[in-house]
Automatic annotation (TrEMBL):
This is Putative Oxidoreductase. Belongs to the non-flavoprotein flavin reductase family. Keywords: Oxidoreductase. InterPro entries: Flavin_Rdtase-like_dom (IPR002563), NADH-dep_flavin_reductase (IPR050268), Split_barrel_FMN-bd (IPR012349). Residues 4-137 form the Flavin reductase like domain. It comes from the Bacteria. The keyword Protease does not apply. It comes from Pseudomonas amygdali pv. dendropanacis. GO terms for molecular function: FMN binding; riboflavin reductase (NADPH) activity. Pfam families: Flavin_Reduct. SUPFAM superfamilies: FMN-binding split barrel. The keyword Oxidoreductase applies.
């Protein structure tokens, strides 16, 4: 997920173990942040976000955004997109979204984003996988 900026320029974000494609027309995706997270109110109020499909080299970023607290980009490379989303470098893909709908999901919100931009790296990178509590890379398929 992407870092978002609060009015005091503090970054927030989450590491989600899963997100899902929802619709092709319109292009929609969804993920489910915990209402208790520092990131949830910022996502709700900012109305935009970026989903990062992390590369196998981004375990530091994954753990940083999985931690508690608000300023999670300390020491992590990022830049602002044309749509105003803070973006991490080296991701496998980035999906920039506007908040389309939000639904109650118990102790989690169900956030549905309308896809506004897809960013792919100039050079292919190996995606990160998460399985049984561990992060890593799949072997190359030849």
């Amino acid at each position: 997920m992407s870092p978002r900026w609060t009015p005091r320029a503090i970054s927030v974000g989450i590491t989600a173990s899963a997100f899902s494609a929802l619709s092709i027309d319109p292009a929609l995706v969804l993920f489910c942040p915990n209402y208790a997270s520092d990131t949830y109110p910022v996502l709700r109020d900012s109305k935009k976000f970026a989903i990062h499909l992390l590369s196998a080299d981004q375990q530091v970023e994954a753990y940083a955004f999985a931690s508690k607290g608000k300023d999670k980009t300390k020491g992590i490379e990022w830049h602002l997109s044309e749509l105003g989303n803070p973006l991490l470098g080296k991701a496998t893909a980035i999906i920039e979204c506007e908040l389309w709908r939000e639904y109650d999901g118990g102790d989690h919100a169900i956030i549905v984003g309308a896809v506004k931009n897809l960013i792919l790296p100039a050079v292919p990178v190996t995606p990160m996988v998460y399985h049984r509590g561990k992060m890593g890379a799949l072997p190359a398929i030849v």
